[in-house]
Amino acid sequence: MYDKYQKHKDEDLRSKNLKTIGTMSTGIAHDLNNILTPILSFTTMAMIDPGLNDNVRYCINQIIKATNHAKELTSQIMSFSRGSAGIRKPLQLGAEVNENVKLLKAYLPDNIKIETSIDFSAGQTLANSCQILQLVMNLGSNACHAIGKETGIIKISLKKTAFIETDTDSFSKAKEFIQLSFKDTGCGIDDKTKMSMFESFYTTKTNGNGLGLGLFVVGEIVKNQNGKITVESELDKGSTFNIYFPALQPDAGKESTLQNVKNMGAAGI
Order of strands, edge to edge, in the sheet holding 177-184? Predict the structure, then answer.
């Protein structure tokens, strides 16, 4: 009886904490967007200078791309706070992930190497590009923390596959899926952590080094994309996160996008 009461109390506290974070993050996202706007404006103006050499022009272009991604993230944070999953549209997932991995490489320390195996012909899925970026960055960050200061490798692969359901929860009627995998050479995950790692505010980090929201956000994003995530891991043997996105069938994209926009409009009334 006490365990049920304590569980209900913990869930209630977790819900209140998420609501508070949502309110705070909306304000922070708004202020951050105001900071990003002049950065984007001045870097765009700098690109007009005909005297720029190719190297400087490339660097400025990367700043513009990163700033645009940051503005998309602030918009997504505000959408999350309003309870919206964001508009999904047909995405070539291979190209999308490949671009996101470039940003991830700039974030990672020198002791960690990224290896990629991306099938650019894997096809499309119905997804939100900003959330895919968040997913890649969060999984990359999680792998980075698992590896720590040791020399390590993160292998990122993407391919089309036929996902075989292993439980009674049928998450999609799709017959083909696009599988995105993150495999690291980090410390691995024990069985107890596997049971709770997608819960909000659950963290194994100490001394305030983590909020416990990274994998929670990943789980919510996968759910929003109508996908499924599985984890394979052993202590001291690394971890593999597999995300399965329903593959979009030809000619289904326009209809799905239109229905998604209608649903968004209905939700806002």
Answer: 112-118, 152-161, 177-184, 239-246, 228-233
Q: SS3 breakdown of the chain: % helix, strand, coil, rounded to 5? A: 50, 20, 30
- Answering whether pTM is above 0.85, one says no
Checking 259-266 for CB contacts under 8 A at 24+ apart, the result is 260/87, 260/88, 260/89, 260/126, 261/87, 264/84, 264/87
User: Where is pLDDT greater, at 70 or 139?
Assistant: 139
- pLDDT score of 106: 81
CA distance 150 to 253: 44
Beta strands in 42-139 (DSSP E): 89-92, 112-118, 124-127
CA distance 143 to 186: 7
pLDDT over threshold 90, residue 192: no
